[in-house]
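Quick one: sequence plus pyridoxal-5'-phosphate SMILES, need structure tokens.
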Amino acid sequence: MNKILNNLPNKFGYFGKYGGQILPNGLKPIFDDIYNEYKKIKKDKNFIEEYKYLLKNYVGRPSPLYFAKNLTEKIGGAKIYLKREDLNHTGAHKINHTLGEALLAKRIGKTKLLAETGAGQHGVALATAAAIVGIDCEIHMGEIDIKKQYPNVMRMKLLGAKVINVKSGGKCLKDAVDSAFKSFLKDPKNIFFGIGSVVGPHPFPKIVMDFQSIVGKEAKKQILQQEKRLPDYLVACVGGGSNAIGLFHKFLNEDSVKIIGVEPAGKNFLPGNHAATLKIGTPGYIHGMFTYLLQDKNHNPLPVHSIASGLDYPGVGPIHSYLKDIKRIEYVTANNKEALCAFKTLTKIEGIIPALESSHAIAYGIKLAKKLDKEKIIIINLSGRGDKDLDYVTKILK
Ligand SMILES: *Cc1c(COP(=O)(O)O)cnc(C)c1O
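Reply:
Sure thing.
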């Protein structure tokens, strides 16, 4: 059996030719230091126990692996299981890694967690982790996003985070990233940049992947208990790629398990109307890494779109670029319409309101199940709950 990822990333942070650590002068030692401390702490009994305790008693892990009987019967094909990350405290998988990051930051003596947020999901997950761990938190958010996502702004403020209103440029995510990075550069020794997915410069793709791999570790144990065998397929949505690699990681060396990542095809495949990075993009540089990227002729990131705000990112985690090239994972797409349809279907027949992000995985999982025999097994990662999307969905379904 080939051992995928055994020695990856290498010591320079590369998965094959992807990843790396493309940083302004002077920052490399700080990021290397975080990795060295992380490697030590990962083996520290107290740290492991504290993280495990919080995952169990605060987040509510293990999350159930639920056999979606109604959905399976309606479709009449493969058996569909849902990994219920929507049942985690704060309603999505993100808490798995923000909690890890907050504990790590505190352990290595950092005084503040800092990040940008688009729709506010990452900001809320990080502010929650900061509250429970007891460390300051500063979240940068574009002025337009603040207006659009006010409930998340209130949550972050109540959780004790300082929310910075970014009024430069287009006043959206990209400007929030620039603003957060500027703020980080003022005191990089004491600030921990709490990255929100398996993206950014080394060692963040590796650290976030490690923290998220709990999802697949549990799922493997659970499916072996419930079905006495491994699944035939895994399906997860891919924005930056953290929930996907979280589910996939423990199965990468299982040759019998087919693995599928689902990107958002948005409205269509014209530039600006989708965020299907691995399908349409080409390798390039973004946010400190080399990876597939939706870019224009001058190598600037293109605008992106999806009804699921958590999926509209023009890059992708370098681990996924690597797994695409070696053909271990197949990357497909689902569009806005298909995701909405899956959102409605799951809500109505299973009584589970999925996040619009997760709805992309469900849409593809349903299509796949239809084509397969009844004894086949699919696990879909239900990365989050859809309560946050109700306003938006109600508006477009009118
Ligand atoms: C943020 C988010 C995603 C996308 O992020 P990944 O890093 O690709 O997992 C997917 N689902 C939900 C519910 C999210 O909040």
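The domain at 28-55+94-209 is CATH 3.40.50.1100 (Rossmann fold). Residues 63 and 84 are 6 Å apart (CA to CA).
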